[in-house]
Structures are given as C-alpha cells and as structure tokens.
C-alpha cells in the first residue's frame, strides 16, 4: 500500500507530461497536413529522376560476363 503513495503521483506526472507534449504538437502544427505523407508513398518520383540522369546501357546485353557464356532460357538443356 505504501508503494501506491509513490507510484500514483509518478503516474500523474507522466500523464501531465504526455498531455503537455500532445498539445505542444497540436499547437506547433504537427497534425496540420496528414494527407501528404500518406500519399507520397503512392506516387513514384522515378520519372523525374530518370529524365535528368542518363541511362547506362548494359555492357553485356546477353548476360555474358567474364565467362563468355550467355543466359539460357528456362527449360533449355545444359551443354556441360
């Protein structure tokens, strides 16, 4: 029972701090624009970035790299 005399005031202080932080966030505009961040993930910015950057061509278009072999299609037999 004696511990409640300590724990209840500590809990009330935490609640008061949480309420104060919440109202600070509201007054400072943290909750003014909730839709922009929710919609930003849905739209790609790749189109604007790819237009300004030159695209690199693949130096090995058939997948041959160091070994001189080309990629096989699925189901193609192996010659090893």
TrEMBL record:
It comes from the Bacteria. Residues 49-59 have a biased composition (Polar residues). The chain crosses the membrane at residues 6-26. Pfam families: FixS. Keywords: Membrane, Transmembrane, Transmembrane helix. The keyword Transmembrane applies. Residues 45-80 are annotated as: Disordered. InterPro entries: Cyt_oxidase_maturation_cbb3. The keyword Magnesium does not apply. This is Cbb3-type cytochrome oxidase assembly protein CcoS.
